[in-house]
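Data availability (excerpt). The following record was deposited with the supplementary files.
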Amino acid sequence: MNYQLQKLMAETISAFSGLFSVHSESIRQFETGEYFVIYSKCSKRVQSILGAEREVLILGNVYSDQQVRSLKFARRIINESDGRLEPTLCVIVHQDPRGNTKLKRWGRENGIAVIPVHTSTGVLPREQEMERLLSFEFFTQDPFDITGPVANDSQFFGRRGEAQELARKLQSGHIRACFGIRKIGKTSILHRVLAELKENYDAVTVFIDCQRDDVFGLDAASLLDSITGSLRELKANGRSYAEVNACPLGNTLSDAARQFQALLNQFDLPVILVFDEIDYITPSNGGAPQWREGFVGFWRNVRAAYHAAAREDRKVSLLISGVSSRWFSVESIDGLENAALAFIPEEYLSPLPRGATNAMIKNIGAMAGLRFDEAALEAISSFCSDMPFWVRKACSSIHGKIETAARPVILQEAVVSPMLDAYGQDEGAALAKVALQHLFRVYPELRAPSLSLLKDNADISASMRLTLIRYGIITTKGHISGAMMRAALVMVAEDVPMIEAHLEDRIEAKTLVSEWAEELAGISYRRNTMERALRSLVINFLRMSALSSKNSPSAKSALLSVIPQNRRSELEPFNLDTIAEKLYWLELVAVINKHWQLFERIFGDKTAFNDNASVVNDRPDAHAKHLEPSDIALHRRALRWLDERITRV
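Predicted structure:
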C-alpha cells in the first residue's frame, strides 16, 4: 500500500475535521491508479454553503498529473452508493499544479461539481482557511458551461424518457426521426440513444455522421457501399457498433443497393442505421451538388432494402437527425417522386417542457450556489424559449455576474430580469439569430411566415403554424416563444439580402437632420464615453485603496456604503464590475464625493466637480424642453472640464 497516499489521507481527515465528519475511509484501485476514498458528512455550516443533504465523497491521489480516470472513478463510486452520496458533488485532493482547472472541466463533463484541493507539500490548510478554499473553488466553477453533447444522467434533463423510448422502438424495427433547430439537443439525445442501445439491447448499429467531409463528399452509390462495408466488418469481428468507414468501391447505384440488401438479410440481430446532421446529404447542401440528384435514388434504394428485409423477417431500423424536415415532406424533387416522403416520418425534438427547463436551472444552479425562486425560473425559461442550450448560456452569464462571496444566494425575478435583458443585447439575440439563419437556409419556406409573426394578426396556415410550434419558434397559443426568439427574428428581418431589394433601395437614405439634432447627438456620444471612463476610474481607485491597507474595506463594500439601503440590497448579489455598470450617474458622483481623498488629485476643486457633474446630469438631449444655445454651450463646457481631468490619469 502506498505510504504517501496513506499519509495524505490522514492529513486530509485532520484538515477537514470540524467541517466534515468521516464515516468511512479506504484505499482503492481503479484501472491503473490508486486512490483514497472517504465518505463524509458535512457540518451544518458547510451543508448550508454547499447545499449538500447527503454524504459527500472525498477522493485523493498523489499523482503529479491528473487524468480523467479520477472523474470516472468518482462517478462510479457515486453511482454505486445507492443514493448515499451527493450525486453532483465531490472533493478531490491532489498534487497536480494544473489539476484544478482540469478536474473542474472533467467534472462538468461528468455532471459533477468538483471541489479541487491542491497541495504541493502534502500539507493542507485548516479551519476557516480550508472553509474559504472550499467555498471559493465550489462557487467559482460554472456548471452551466457545457460545450459538447450531454449524455450523463445528472445533466440530461427532460429527454430521458424520449431517449429510452427511441431506443426501444429502434430495437423493434422502427423508422424514427429527430428534426429540430440548432442546439436544441439532437446530438445529445442521439448519444443517449446509442448508449441505451449498447447497454440494454442486442443490436448492430452503424452511426453515419453526415457532416464529415469524407461522408457528404460521397455520392449515393458510394455511401451505400460504405454502409455495407461497415456492416460487413461488424459481422466479421462480432462487434455491435461502428461509425461508418467512408470507402467508395466504385459500384453503380444498382450494384451498391443489391449488395446492401443482400447483407441485411444475413443478420439475425436488428440492424440500426443512425444518420446525424442529415442536412449535409440533402439538396440543401450547395457544397455537395451530387446530393441534388442523388438524394431520391439513395432513399429509394434504402426503402427497397428495408421492405425486402421485412419480408425476410429481418429487423432494420433507421434514426434520422437534422435541422430540416423539408426534403422528407415534399412530394417530388426536380420532377422525380420523392422516395423519402412517407418513409421518413416528420418528427421533431421540440423545446423542453417548462417543468424540465426549470428543474435543469434549479439543479445545475445549486452546483454553483445559485438558487432561483419560482418567478426567476419562469423568467429565464420563458426568455430562452425553453431551448436547453440557450438557457445554459443565459445562466452562465448570470453566474459570471454574481459575487462569489455572496453565495449561496437566492436570486429573485427582479434581479434576474435586467441581467437577462443585458445578456440578450450582448450575446443572446446573436446566438438565436445564428440558429434561425441556419434553419432558414436549409428550410427557406419557413422564413416568410416566421418573420410575419413580428406583425399583428399574422396569417399563417395551420400546417405551417404546427411546423413553427415544433421548431420552438412559437408557442401552442401562436405567440413568439420568448424574448431571445423575438430579438433574433427582428435581427433576421433587418438583414435583407441586397439581391432581394429594389435598385432604388440600395442607395442608403440619408436622414435630413438639423445641426441642432447633430449637436445633441454629439453631446450624447461624448457623455456616454466619458461616463464609461469614469466608472472604470472609480473601480480601479477603490481597488487600489482596498489593497493598500489590511484594515481598508473591500472595494465592493466601499462602493455599496454610499448607496441608499434599498439600492444596496438590490445590488448586493453582484460582483464589483457588474455593480459599477448598474450605478446611475448621481450614484457615481456620490461615490466620488464620499471618497474624495482618493479623487482630489484628479478633479482638484470639489465644488467645481459637483457643479459640472450636475450640468451633465441635466441631459438636454433627453428632455422635451425648450433649449437655448446657452444650454448647449454650458453642457459642452461641463463635459470638456470633466474630460480634461479624467484623461490626465
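Summary of structural features: The chain has 26 helices and 14 strands.
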